[in-house]
Design goal:
By secondary structure, the chain is α+β, with helices and mostly antiparallel strands. Helix content is 28%, strand content 24%. A 6-stranded antiparallel β-sheet has the order 2-3-4-5-8-7. It is globular.
C-alpha cells in the first residue's frame, strides 16, 4: 500500500476501490441513476502560470453538511504527480498523458458525524479545455472508478473499507481544475446511493467553490 506525501500529521494511504466482484458491479450500477450532472467551464484561468491551489485553501478543516452535521478533515496531501498508479486508474492516466499535462493532484479525506467517508481530489490541468473533457468523460463512465479512495489514517477511528464497498462519485470543473468527490457509507453497504450522493454534495460544492475562487482570482 503506497503512502502519499503528507501536509498534515495524519498520513493518507491511497487505496484502490475498483473491483470486478459482483457486489461492486452492483454498487457501480446503483450509482448510475444517482450521478449528478457534471459542471465544467472552459474559462481560462487569468494566470496560466499560477501554481496548484494550496492544500489549506482547497480543503477546509470543517464543512457544514446542511443538516446540522459537519464534515471533518482527517488528512490532506499533495501527490508527486497526477498519474501515480496508486492514485489514478490507467484510463485516466492515459488521458492526462495524451494531453498537455497536469500540474499536480491534491487529495483530502473527510468523515461526517456518522463516520461515513468522503474523498476529494483536485487535478490541476495545464489546459482548462482538458478539464472540461475529463469531467465529461468521467461522468459518462460513472461505473468506472478512475480515482482511488484513501485509507483512514491511524487514530481516526474509521475502518479501512473493503474494495467491494459501495461508492458514489461526482465531478466538477473550475478553470484548469477538476474536482472529484467520492462517498462511502461507514459500513460499506451497497445501497441508498441517491442519499449518499446528496450527502456528498455540500462537501464537493465547498471544495469546488474554493478552487473556483482561486482559479479566477485577479
Amino acid at each position: 500500500m503506497a503512502t502519499a506525501a503528507v501536509a498534515t500529521a495524519a498520513v493518507l494511504a491511497v487505496r484502490h476501490t475498483t473491483s470486478s466482484s459482483p457486489e461492486h458491479e452492483t454498487a457501480a450500477a446503483g450509482t448510475a441513476s444517482a450521478a449528478p450532472t457534471p459542471r465544467a467551464s472552459a474559462t481560462s484561468a487569468p494566470a496560466a502560470e499560477r501554481p496548484v491551489i494550496p492544500l489549506a485553501d482547497a480543503f477546509p478543516v470543517h464543512v457544514a453538511d446542511g443538516k446540522g452535521g459537519t464534515f471533518t478533515k482527517l488528512g490532506e496531501a499533495a501527490l508527486k504527480s497526477c498519474t501515480e498508479p496508486d492514485s489514478v486508474g490507467s484510463a485516466l492516466a492515459a488521458e492526462i498523458d495524451a494531453g498537455k499535462g497536469c500540474l499536480g493532484e491534491s487529495i483530502a479525506l473527510y468523515k461526517d458525524t456518522h463516520g461515513n467517508q468522503f474523498n476529494l481530489a483536485v487535478f490541476t490541468m495545464k489546459d482548462p479545455q482538458e478539464t472540461v473533457k475529463l469531467v465529461t468523460q468521467l461522468t459518462m463512465n460513472f461505473n468506472d472508478y478512475e480515482v482511488a479512495a484513501q485509507a483512514p489514517p491511524p487514530g481516526s477511528g474509521l475502518p479501512t473499507l473493503p474494495a467491494d464497498s459501495g461508492m458514489v462519485q461526482a465531478f466538477t470543473g473550475q478553470g484548469r481544475a477538476m474536482v472529484v468527490g467520492l462517498g462511502q457509507w461507514s459500513d460499506g453497504r451497497t445501497s441508498d446511493y441517491q442519499e449518499l450522493v446528496d450527502h456528498l454534495q455540500p462537501l464537493l460544492t465547498s471544495v469546488s467553490k474554493n478552487v473556483a475562487r482561486y482559479e479566477t482570482a485577479d
